[in-house]
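Encode chain A's predicted structure.
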Amino acid sequence: MTMDPSSFLLLNLPAHFELPVCMDYFTLNAPPDTHIWRKPASRDTTTAPLVYTSLRHPFVISEVTVTANWEMEWDQAGLVIFAGAPPGEQAPLSPRSRHRSRENISDEPRAQGKWVKAGLEFTAGTLNASCTVATSSSGADWSLSPILPAGMPHEALPLSTSSLRIKFERIGDSLWVWYRMPNVPTSTTMPSPEAAGAEWKKIREVMGFFRGVEDKYGVWVGCYASRPMNFTPSHSWEAERVSGSNGDWNGLLVEFEDLEIF
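Encoded structure for chain A:
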């Protein structure tokens, strides 16, 4: 499916940023100290660069492949989906709240929307398929699934291992999150153990993610890049050591390929 760039919204990106004519390939640069996160009893932090679109129909499926030089702790990128409220905003008041007097609801905080992000994340020297779920005021729920053998440095592996294809899929009211190594076609016959390891693997199921989300409230889905670490080298040689790489101290440069949203 060909994605129309004009249907996408931008958040936390420079004024000069322009999407390509074709959404099959684009890049995002995430400066240090950029997040998508929710602390308990707190508003969302949404400072990561985002490219997303508002859906005017029930969400079905979305996929994208992310690639980068993963260097700093918590470097990450992938898909993100919001339900009930767009990024950085609160959910609309419920019909019950709207019928209360203005005085009774003036101090009542609006509920935050739900969101899920999933992608490739560099943590403790290991590349992981990560998933973060924020569906309540209790804060975000973070999980990791290593994609490389224990103790194997990701720098020594082929480029494909620095890339990951992420998929969101709606099944009933639930959101299912999948990943697989890119550029490896899925098999219609019984695969070998090696081939099976390259096909889709389920990260998690977010039950009831779409429940209670009225059509007029909408669903927003797109891509994000994030560098939560905020670190400035204390010596010039440390900065020079990584200068010229895609993911330097100034930001994490992420490539997004073959974006599909249905």
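The first helix runs from residue 95 to 98.
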